[in-house]
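#onboarding

Welcome to the new folks! Below is a worked example of what a typical request in this channel looks like: someone posts a single protein sequence, and someone else replies with the predicted structure as tokens. Don't worry about understanding the tokens yet, we'll cover that in week two.

Example request:
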Amino acid sequence: MNGKLIDIIQIILLLLILLSANHKLLKKAKLLAKRTLVVSIHAFSKAVPKKRNLVVFGGENGKGFRGNTKYLFLEIAKDPQLNCVWISKSDQVVTQLTKQGYQAYKHNSPKGIYYQLRAKLVIHSHSINDDFSKPFLGGAISYNTWHGVGLKKVWGANKKTFSYKILHEKSWLKRYFGSFVVKTNQAKTNYVVSTSNAVSSYYPETFLVPESHVIQMGQVRNDVFFKETQEDLLIPEWIRRQKVIMYMPTHRNFGKLETDINLVFDFQKLNQLCAEKGYIFLVKRHMYSSGQVPSIYENIIDISEEDYDPQLLLKYTDILLTDYSSCYTDYLLLDRPVLFYSYDLNVYLQKSNEMYFNYFDVTPGPKVNDFSHLLKELEGAMEDPTCYAEERDRVLNIFYAKENQGEVLQKQVRYIMEHLLR
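Example response:
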């Protein structure tokens, strides 16, 4: 009896192993079929005739209407000879722009697909995969404004991405077929906007474009720093009129390495310092962050769920507190104190993201890894905002060339009109 039972158990185990293997094979087969379909549609899209005056815009991972592409869209759409269309993955964005009299369509709607297939030029802030439906854009010109000037290696330079792994694959067969998939993240001709010589040096590897297609023309979204517009009123008066410390952290491996915010801040002591010095401490967490900021403190307010434009928030920030986020490189344009709370730097570098620069060479402000030290440095920044001013200027000139340290919208529009749409 025991022998028969053992035989039955072995058969069951064998069946489970086979089913498990088949499940894995099935998943691989589905992935292969999906990639084959995407590559095929992408190749077909190159043959679709393009409309010379059709420009398609998108941004914010297809979910929002703000940033570099927003301002380019609003300006270029003024030209009556051009047909400007915003493509989004958000019903809310499509409804908002349609009500304002603009053309806007979902990325997977019939009209959305049609305009993507026919567009001569696509202007976006992330990859065409993030902002659009990438299979339909194989024959277009891509103008990638990108969405920040940061430290972290991404896309073609990041060892954890599919693109990097395929490009460095030892097997020529896998590398050959994988390259077709990598190319679906690009259009026929690709440009990317840079901000300085230093940044331009690593963009060809990152975005897989020739050096001649890296254009140093700044970040349009930062124009809000240098002028007053009606947009400023979108930030509540209670923020605009007070002295503000803004905490803007980045994500840690898309939330997998996050530490509860209550474990790295003593909010009671922080609230006491802010009350004594007349500051409010605003928390603008990344979408992947964990933990809940206590709501019992008068001078500490979590605005993470509010839809405030990050650049306008930076404009009304007196002291910025961050970690590895690219927000500080933009903030340097304002020449105000920035502090770096890098309590998990070793873990971050080992398990989350490699960096283009040595972290300590390009972070012009105190770098602290424990809360008591942070509290002292915050107080120091409140008392003397000119501290680290020379360092801030040095690092600003690494990330932003002098000609890109002011308003840049009009020169980008001129480049697009004269070189890409002529």
